[in-house]
């Protein structure tokens, strides 16, 4: 299903598109994103799960373009917020919200909770910043072939903590507020290669590629 030289990734998120371009280049593939196909209307992401939304994006774009399409639906689940923002991560601060607005809302919501006595809230990092809650990035991928109607799917996740202030300027989205205790660094402090090795998206892509090899 990935026999085409150019793989279309059904995303309008430039940060995701760059990560896929980097990862798939290692397989000798070029990528295009929906930013290259402005004629495809905005896709309504009304699924209840990351996996359902990934299938919706892949099928909508694949049927419109007539080629196999890879789609990613991802987001952040924050323990202290009962798993929010979850599938609403992109529109947490409102429809069309910027990454900055979503990050500001996340800190606002966590700030409202006060000290719940959890270990996370007591711990501070060497620079004096504090860990506010356990959290997990989740990524669901769906590869859809319009010729057969078949999907290949995979999920990945990475655990960490939300910090009370940003660390690093790399990555995108919620990366500046996501702390990786095992590495002693923030997600936005990692290189593209490092993020690919440990991230939810990297794990999902490795699983998808191995399933593709078996199909
Ligand atoms: O739907 P597409 O067009 O792919 O782009 P999107 O940005 O709307 O993507 P999602 O619907 O999957 O929403 C994902 C949200 O989770 C955030 N997110 C996903 N992966 C991330 C990562 O690796 N690092 C930081 N934030 C991430 C991202 O910034 C969005 O706010
Ligand atoms: Mg989206």
TrEMBL record:
E.C. no: 3.6.1.66
Cofactor binding summary note: Binds 1 Mg(2+) ion per subunit.
Active-site residues annotated for this sequence: 73 (proton acceptor)
GO annotation, biological process: nucleotide metabolic process; purine nucleoside triphosphate catabolic process
Positions of substrate binding: 11-16, 74, 172-175, 195, 200-201
Membrane-crossing residue ranges in chain numbering: none
Binding site for Mg(2+): 73
GO molecular function per UniProt: dITP diphosphatase activity; ITP diphosphatase activity; metal ion binding; nucleotide binding; ribonucleoside triphosphate phosphatase activity; XTP diphosphatase activity
InterPro entries membership: dITP/XTP_pyrophosphatase, ITPase-like_fam, RdgB/HAM1
Record's catalysed reaction(s): dITP + H2O = dIMP + diphosphate + H(+); ITP + H2O = IMP + diphosphate + H(+); XTP + H2O = XMP + diphosphate + H(+)
Names of required cofactors: Mg(2+)
Gene Ontology, cellular component aspect: cytosol
Family: Belongs to the HAM1 NTPase family.
Subunit structure: Homodimer.
Function as written in the Swiss-Prot or TrEMBL entry: Pyrophosphatase that catalyzes the hydrolysis of nucleoside triphosphates to their monophosphate derivatives, with a high preference for the non-canonical purine nucleotides XTP (xanthosine triphosphate), dITP (deoxyinosine triphosphate) and ITP. Seems to function as a house-cleaning enzyme that removes non-canonical purine nucleotides from the nucleotide pool, thus preventing their incorporation into DNA/RNA and avoiding chromosomal lesions.
NCBIfam families according to UniProt: RdgB/HAM1 family non-canonical purine NTP pyrophosphatase
Name the record gives this protein: dITP/XTP pyrophosphatase
Source species of the chain: Paenibacillus arenilitoris
